[in-house]
């Protein structure tokens, strides 16, 4: 029986008008001037409302050549629902205003059989925006190419569990028909986020935030999950997709296929100049097969 996850954030976080949505996505994608590459096997992309992060996200999704991809693993952080594990979707299809993505029920069953995952009910699934914000881009990029999705909600994982899920999912990296869409915003800065780290040596606040984010991005590019963990414990940067990113780093270090992550775009929702300001950072990366 079909079980639909509705595009619950359409009409608020992004337009629910199909024509307008298509135009926006096409505009952002063509503005990047990127060339599609079959070597791109994954992306790290933001998940804020499109008016904030839509343009930055295009620098991740614009690299994807859909030709050989059959399956997309979606890894998104959990914002509203607490779980110390990863959770699988119970839906059979993810709808968007511009097309639908069927869930790969076979892989969901395979993952379920490991006993390591919990299931999220439809209510939890629809309340979460981290994976939904990737869907319209994926529908657009994979237009005319039949793909299925494997949505994985990544909970508040302990370090050992990040490594465990990384090892468990690593075999999927070795299948060149699999793709990975990792969802994360970067620094959430300001008193409303309870995070006001400021290194005055960097100049204005927004430059300090940028330096902090770039430090994290550089470490992610090395592929070293332990170094990323060390950075997070030292600076406590409010990267909301820290767990999905860590799992992805463990996946690539445990697979035979060598993956190289490269960041291509960095933006901030606004430039913080005083301690009363706030901003969220957005960074987009492509993960390529490293020949």
TrEMBL record:
Signal peptide: none annotated. InterPro entries: MEMO1_fam. It comes from the Eukaryota. Belongs to the MEMO1 family. PANTHER family: PROTEIN MEMO1 (PTHR11060). This is Protein MEMO1. The lineage of its organism: Eukaryota, Viridiplantae, Streptophyta, Embryophyta, Tracheophyta.
């Amino acid at each position: 029986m079909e079980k639909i996850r509705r595009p619950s954030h359409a009409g608020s976080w992004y337009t629910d008008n199909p024509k307008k949505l298509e135009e926006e996505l096409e505009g952002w994608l063509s503005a990047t001037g990127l060339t599609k590459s079959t070597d791109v096997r994954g992306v790290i992309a933001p998940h804020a409302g499109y008016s904030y992060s839509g343009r930055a996200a295009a620098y991740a999704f614009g690299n994807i050549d859909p030709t050989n991809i059959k399956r997309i693993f979606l890894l998104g952080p959990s914002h509203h629902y607490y779980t110390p594990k990863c959770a699988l979707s119970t839906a059979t299809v993810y709808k968007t205003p511009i097309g639908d993505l069927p869930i790969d029920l076979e892989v969901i069953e395979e993952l379920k059989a490991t006993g390591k995952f919990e299931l999220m009910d439809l209510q939890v699934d629809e309340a979460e925006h981290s994976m939904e914000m990737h869907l319209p881009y994926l529908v657009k990029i994979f237009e005319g190419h039949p793909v299925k999705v494997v949505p994985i909600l990544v909970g508040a994982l302990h370090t050992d569990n990040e490594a465990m899920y990384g090892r468990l999912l690593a075999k999927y990296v070795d299948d060149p028909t699999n793709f990975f869409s990792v969802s994360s915003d970067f620094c959430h800065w300001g008193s409303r986020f309870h995070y006001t780290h400021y290194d005055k040596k960097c100049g204005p606040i927004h430059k300090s935030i940028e330096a902090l984010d770039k430090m994290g991005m550089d470490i992610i590019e090395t592929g070293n999950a332990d170094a990323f963990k060390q950075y997070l414990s030292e600076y406590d940067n409010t990267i909301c997709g820290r767990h999905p990113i860590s799992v992805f780093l463990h996946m690539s270090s445990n697979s035979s296929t060598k993956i190289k992550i490269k960041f291509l775009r960095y933006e901030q929702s606004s430039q913080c100049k005083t301690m009363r300001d706030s901003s969220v950072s957005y960074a987009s990366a492509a993960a390529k097969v490293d020949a």
